[in-house]
């Protein structure tokens, strides 16, 4: 007998977003909008590949939100809801067969009809494409087949509780089989999905342009003619462009810019809690590139856990949050947010405190030459620069000489994937199910394990956590995973952002939920 796969939905916390009009109080934005116009969204960096199988960035997910719908999505309450599927999945009693009903009558931007075969083609590509960032997420998928034109049947090699949540992100994006066949590896430059808008052009470092897709199944509810995404890494410049009217939405606005925006009567602020994390990734074994077997790196930081622990102990998370983020973020010391409805993570007040004396003692025990020289790669945003400078001053007191290497974001991802780094600023926007914050990054040869972590005992815990549905046992497992990662100090979690988006008051219909994406499907200019 089949039952609804609702373990994620029933366990999810409410992650409501809000919109606050500066100078007034408004929690929702349901004002009527007119048809027409171009909306410009300022992103804090240039997205990586516009290929759902290969993409890794939050800014890329925001662009995808306008042009690539998924089998499932989340709503304003953080609940999983159907999108290109028509209902939640059904699973067999043994948890090994999952059935997905697919929307009828939808078309891709190139006019190709959406059907079950197209869904299967995308799922298998996500799983099997060399270099796919979705490979770990869909690793438990043994087989996927079309049953008629509107039903997909998935066979799993073991029960897989996070599947619905996985299909509410890029692994659930369905690409046009016609475009995949025509463009192959060059799909990133010719993306075609089902979405409110379709791809027009990309000028690297300058803009990505989408236009309203007449093939979209709900085109009558789409008001804008075009959406333009512009990478502007400096938050002050994003805010200046908002003030001048050159852009209408500023994504991922930092606390300093948010405080400034609060004085502007013509701007509105959207915010939501984050399920993600930000921290420092340490290269402990990435010698052959992403997804490959870990190897040995002969540096004090990589080879001796005492050195990594000393680096961690030299950091004051509370002070970092105060100095860099004006106290508007939260200190963090684990992969799973306390906001998670499933296996909530470590609360900020329970994170370890700075202990420079112990850090120095550990370095002495390790017998390393002082100062220990380490290079930190950061993105080029001013905010990340400040993070680097504060860390530089903190760890110096413990015996580290930290040099900073600001690197263009997509370049940094490429270099760290190849293992070309000591440590780097590593972050993730977060997922509803805790497995989404763990398996890709911490499992041996995981699709986004750029750190070279290889721990068989940790792998067993990850496999168990994604195979069972009992909330109490899952909480125990993810608590143990968090403890093992904390003890290894190969990923040093520092803080959790809040999702701040600033927009012109002339724009309505924007949606910002707990996943941090800016949704513009129903956005438009007020009448």
* % residues in beta strands: 15-25%
What's the end-to-end separation, in Å?
Answer: 51 Å
The number of helices is 16
**Helical proportion?**
25-40%
Q: What characterizes the major β-sheet?
A: 8 strands, mixed
Low-confidence stretches: 1-28
Overall, the morphology is: globular
Q: What structural class do you assign from the helix and strand content?
A: alpha+beta
Total beta-strand segments: 26
Q: What quaternary form is this?
A: single chain
Q: Residue-averaged pLDDT, rounded?
A: 92
Radius of gyration over C-alpha positions, nearest whole angstrom: 23 Å
The strand order across the widest sheet is: 2-15-22-14-4-13-12-11
Fold and architecture overview:
With 527 residues, the chain is α+β, with helices and mostly antiparallel strands. 28% of the residues lie in helices and 22% in strands. The strands form 6 sheets. An 8-stranded mixed beta sheet has the order 2-15-22-14-4-13-12-11, sandwiched between helices. Strand 9 and strand 10 form a beta hairpin. Helix 15 runs antiparallel to helix 16 (471-488).
């Amino acid at each position: 007998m089949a039952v609804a796969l609702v373990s994620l939905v029933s366990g999810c916390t409410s992650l409501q977003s809000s919109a606050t009009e500066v100078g007034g109080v408004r929690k929702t934005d349901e004002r009527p909008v007119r048809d027409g116009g171009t909306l410009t969204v300022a992103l804090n960096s240039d997205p990586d590949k516009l290929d759902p199988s290969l993409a890794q960035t939050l800014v890329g997910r925001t662009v995808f939100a306008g042009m690539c719908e998924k089998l499932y999505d989340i709503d304003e309450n953080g609940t999983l809801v159907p999108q290109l599927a028509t209902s939640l999945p059904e699973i067999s009693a043994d948890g090994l067969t999952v059935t997905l009903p697919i929307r009828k009558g939808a078309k891709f931007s190139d006019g190709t009809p959406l059907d079950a075969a197209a869904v299967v083609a995308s799922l298998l590509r996500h799983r099997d494409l060399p270099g796919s960032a979705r490979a770990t997420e869909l690793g438990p998928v043994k087989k996927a087949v079309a049953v008629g034109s509107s039903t997909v049947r998935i066979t799993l090699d073991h029960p897989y509780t996070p599947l619905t949540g996985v299909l509410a992100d890029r692994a659930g994006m369905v690409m046009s089989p016609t475009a995949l066949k025509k463009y192959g590896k060059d799909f990133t430059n010719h993306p075609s999905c089902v979405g409110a808008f379709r791809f027009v052009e990309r000028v690297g470092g300058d803009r990505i342009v989408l236009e309203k897709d007449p093939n979209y199944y709900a085109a009558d509810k789409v008001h804008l003619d075009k959406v333009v995404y512009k990478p502007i890494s400096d938050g002050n410049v994003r805010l200046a462009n908002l003030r001048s009217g050159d852009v209408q939405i500023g994504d991922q606005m930092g606390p300093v810019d948010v405080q400034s925006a609060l004085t502007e009567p013509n701007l509105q602020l959207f915010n939501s809690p984050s399920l993600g994390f930000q921290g420092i990734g340490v290269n402990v074994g990435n010698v052959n590139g992403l997804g490959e077997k870990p190897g040995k790196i002969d540096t004090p930081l990589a080879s001796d856990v005492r050195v990594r622990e000393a680096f961690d102990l030299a950091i004051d998370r509370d002070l970092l949050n105060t100095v860099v983020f004006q106290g508007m973020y939260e200190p963090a010391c684990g992969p799973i947010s306390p906001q998670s409805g499933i296996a909530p993570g470590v609360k900020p007040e329970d994170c370890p405190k700075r202990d420079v004396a112990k850090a120095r003692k550990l370095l002495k025990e390790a017998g390393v030459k002082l100062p220990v020289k380490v290079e930190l790669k950061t993105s080029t945003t001013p905010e990340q620069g400040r993070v680097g400078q504060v860390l530089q001053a903190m760890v110096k007191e413990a015996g580290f000489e930290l040099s900073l290497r600001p690197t263009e974001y997509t370049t940094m991802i490429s270099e760290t994937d190849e293992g070309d780094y000591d440590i780097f600023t590593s972050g993730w926007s977060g997922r509803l199910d805790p497995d989404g914050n763990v398996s890709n990054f911490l499992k041996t040869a995981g699709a986004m394990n750029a750190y070279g972590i290889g721990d068989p005992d940790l792998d067993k815990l990850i496999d168990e956590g994604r195979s069972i549905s009992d909330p109490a046992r899952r909480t125990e497992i993810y608590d143990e995973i968090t403890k093992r990662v904390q003890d290894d100090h190969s990923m040093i979690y520092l803080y959790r952002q809040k999702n701040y988006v600033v927009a012109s008051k002339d724009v309505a219909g924007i949606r910002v939920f707990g996943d941090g994406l800016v949704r513009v499907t129903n956005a438009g200019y007020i009448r």
